[in-house]
Input
Amino acid sequence: MAFFDFMRRSSAPEAAAPAVEPTPPAAPEVRAEVPAGTLFNGLDDPALLEFIRGGTDGAYGPRTASLRNMAVLRSLALISEAMGMLPCSLMEDGPAKRVAKEMEAHKRIKLKPNGWQTPLEFKSTVQLNALVHGNGYARVIWSRDRPIQMIPMESPRVKAELGNDWQMHYEYTRKDGGTVKLAQREVFHLRDLSIDGELGMSRIKLAREALNLASQAERAAARTFAKGVMASGSIEVPQALSDRAYKRMQDSLDERHSGADNAGNFMLLEEGAKASKWAQTSADAQHKEQRDHQIEEVARAFGVPRPLLMMDETAWGSGIEQLGIFFVQYGLQRWFTAWEQALARVLLSESELERFFFKFNERALMRGTLKDQGEFFAKALGAGGHAPWYTQDEVREVSDMPASNDPAAQKLRPPTGQKAPTNEPAQTP
Output
């Protein structure tokens, strides 16, 4: 009942209205949706813009909008998968440096972070969130002062802030809409570049203009293939063809000169027809250059060398090997340190910090060929007169081989060309 009808209604009973068949409910309006609990970080959040436009991507919605750019997807996959693949161990410092296999913190990051994820899957998930959103989170479940599980949390569902007690406080929004407040000790927090020291900045947001330009270039290319004229040339005739002649020429093109099977066949033209091949225009060349430039912009944002994004301007050889080393040193080394220090902050107590530390084994990405490994191990064992720094068992361990039963394999050998010390007394003159 309308508002003015209510005001006009008297105290007298109304006459019975004639029966009217109920109108079937209208079909629900299709709207863009996001999972419950998804948070948007400001009006310039790319996820919010994607949500307003109605662009969803299956169950993930606007959270994967930036991953539709192939250069971004390749860059994030390279870094996330490398961090997930490399082993991270808890080491005990001291003269006899060793892996602290008995510590629960080591088991969580090296063997079993939780009940449904492998270490590779866990580290890749947290790393991907840190790259996309600037912050990667995982809830740490404690029992009797021991970390028994590390559960990744989606970054858009987490609200983090520094309290007046100089401790970080977190609020996680569950999928059902409920919230959970967590203390600093209960959250593993991996930050990207940060201005205030509280929250990391999203590189996706910082490179928003470059990514938007790349997205527009991709849409322009898609429209060209979908609606643009893709003919490679034209056939000119001096006068209009009859319907029969036109049909005959069209059938000849479709049946004898179309497709890969007819590549290289000669075409016979009638009625004074002349074939003209269309060359690539300057606009086409500039479009390709623009797309290549946007790939370079993405590579610059994430510190990934262009050849690793499948750009073919560099020949494969020793230069690619050096680019791989460059990627490890300048693209991944920062994340190695960030992971090691963030793990120590949340999983180790003040007393344990003096004895233990986390360490990634980046050598797995820099092993090189078997020939290179052989030359390195030979020098490490003392070949060529070098002072040895590896024992035979240490070389076998790096090569994923079991230790030998020879006691001499656990001692450093003298450099090649020098005699091993003996227990015989020195000769008197």
Q: What stands out?
A: The first helix runs from residue 3 to 8. The longest strand covers residues 135-143. Residues 367 and 373 are 7 Å apart (CA to CA). The mean pLDDT is 77.
